[in-house]
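Possible regression after last week's pipeline update?

I re-ran a chain I had predicted before the update to compare outputs. Posting the input and the new output here so someone can diff against the archived version. Not blocking, just want to make sure nothing changed silently.
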Amino acid sequence: MTSCSEFGTADVVVIGAGIVGLAHAYEATERGLSVAVVERDERASGASVRNFGHGCITAQDGQALDYALAARDTWLRLAKEAGFHIGEAGTVVVARAADELELLTELAEYRDGQVDLLDERAVLDRVPVAGAIGGAHFPLDIRVDPREAVHAVAASLADRGVTFHWSTTAHTIGTGEVGTSRGVLRASHVVVAVGHDVDRHFPGLAAQRAVQRCSLHMLRVAEPYGRDVDCAVLTGLSMLRYAAFAACRSHDAVRSRLERDHPRLVDAGLNLMFTQLPGGDLTIGDTHAYQATVPPYRAEHLDELVLAETARLLGVRSLAVRERWTGVYASAPDPFLVETPCDDVRVVAVTSGIGMTTAFGLAPAVLDDLLA
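New output (post-update):
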């Protein structure tokens, strides 16, 4: 039963303890404000912990790139403060076709100093892949273990005085207060950062902004060579997923070839990539499907597709699966959702699958507006 009694006050109440919510809590504490975070689960368990842990900075463009660059600085600072590992080895984009290499060459000219072109030998020195004819290194990209980093950030914020109300559901949200399953929180300002569940609280707003759920097939597999892979690894299929690639003239040629030669992969929305977890296993994926409600059933052929293409990329016959899961994030035509449903309340979501990359850059902009 929901209590009507008041059980706390704060300058800023944040609903949602995923990375977007934590970014706003962090930024508010940096400004000397008192903060309370309301999270329906006993710990973050959504998109923020089900991803590659990849700060995919260089592949962004426009406003997203600005947010990503700002977020990079905060991630580096937080890693020291909160005591989690952060990798600064960057990303290797593997080119396995001439048009992919041409696109990377164009991007290197467009992004002077942010992209280093690699020949075949240089690619193989960094990552264990097959079929590479060259590639590029993105030195600004970073990597964390999402299973560790998000919880470490929350713990660090708690040490700084942020109050966390775990296993607490927000029922009503309005100017000056949030009604929860444990009582009413009074707040001068409210940030609603519930990711793909925007429609649970503000269905009209979600419909107006065409917010859907994007579901992803992802797996953890044994690294077949017993090798440390410090870099994140992207491929030609990744070039269909990120704005910096789309801004290049060569992008259309890459898309046309992949649609012609690999229609099943494109139809599945496969972003063929991997990162390595601290124990050595690889996080691989990922397919993309869009709908308002994610079906409870996993299509085995999509897992098989991810496994087969990753094995081909690594030059092995098969991979040993450790875990399988469904990732989910908010998706919409615009990459960022920031709305004001009522005075002193902001609904915030990263609606493009780049929350880990951009949240710590987005939060200062949102709070500048909210506190003005």
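Follow-up from reviewer: compared with the archived run. The chain has two domains: 6-50+147-209+333-371, 89-141+211-332. Marking as no regression found.
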